[in-house]
Amino acid sequence: MRIDTSFDFRDGASGRDPDTHSPTLRRYHKLLWNKPLPSGRPFLSDAKPGAYLYHCSDLGEFFLSSDTIINTFTRWKRLRHIVELFPEEENEHFRRVGSTIGARIVFPANRIDGKRTVNGARGWNSKIRDRFDLTLECIRRHYLGQGSPLGDPLCNPLGDLLCNPLGDTLSSYRDFFALFESFRGYVDFFLLHDLVNEDCSAVNFFMPFDDFSTPALPMDRAAYENYRRCSIEFVEARNRRIDRFYNLPAEHVT
Prior knowledge:
With 254 residues, the chain is mainly α.
């Protein structure tokens, strides 16, 4: 079965959240991520009742859910005054690109000690605002800190968690991120190469970034236009990568 990287997951979801209600999206996730981890062990386990996707091994048990990694902000009241400066067909094009497989990933959905999941934390945190480029930077720093926000060498001497706004959440899921062994392993597994530099030492941000001190939301027309362009370029590049690595015969993959 081929993966149609142009397929809009809103189709067939009956107006509901595609991350939960699109059978095509779930099938594509299963096709893409049903592959070996860096250790050689399988990432996905046999289906478990009630689980979207599932991993269970001596490395841990994780109930996985789909998450959108591109937020268009076109439905945010707070940014309506900016979004309305653009033709609706441009806004809809952004939403359509953000509804393809290149704009999706999976995270563990089981709560730990009643804390927010990764999906929930990155949407709630004012320094992230559901942006995946900022989320990925937090994940990069998590690997540098070996799973502890206070162990991150980029933290200040007082252990201020502002150096990694998602540090506490990511540490709660340290066993999940350990499956991929390193930041490069995480990037390689989820085909995120187009959001990092060549040696995976830095994230390519959608907006100017200064150690989480800059606004997470685009505050004017120019910032939003640049954020939209970078977001679309990333999703389209990742879709092409998915086409190469999944849809082409192995002998044609380079």
